[in-house]
Amino acid sequence: MNINLGIQDESRAQIAAGLSRLLADTYTLYLKTHNFHWNVTGPMFNTLHLMFETQYTELALATDLIAERIRALGHVAPGSYSQFAALSSIPEETGVPTATDMIRQLLEGQEQVVRTARSLFPLVEGVHDEPTADLLTQRIQMHEKTAWMLRSMLG
Fold first, then answer.
1. GO molecular function of the protein, one example (predicted)?
2. Which CATH superfamily is 21-153 part of?
3. Model pTM greater than 0.85?
4. Pick from 2, 6, 18, 138: most CB atoms within 10 A?
5. pLDDT for the residue 3
């Protein structure tokens, strides 16, 4: 079926590809945050356990918003571990780091998602894709705030 949103097919494909990278980063960060929620130990256990739960819940909701925007642009959203692994710029963690290292890794992940989202702005602004620009702005605001909170825990 032909899609006529006022954005050329090639531009929609490029935006969808960028959003797929953002989705992969977001999902990878979600999985890492959930893992750390389950496995954190130490004197900050309760604080971090609850904080990580808040963060992974927000990330889970964000994956849906990003995937739905990809679909609205007429493209298929990636949804498998192998696709996310190939697209994500966030390294997975298979061990159980210390609580401080968990915070540091999540901070790095939050900042990486900001960079991934920010990299799409020239393209979406160039084709006047305001809905995607709005989504990116909201994601950047949330990740910058979360990064600030994690950074504050590191002193």
1. oxidoreductase activity, acting on metal ions
2. Ferritin, core subunit, four-helix bundle (1.20.1260.10)
3. yes
4. 18
5. 84
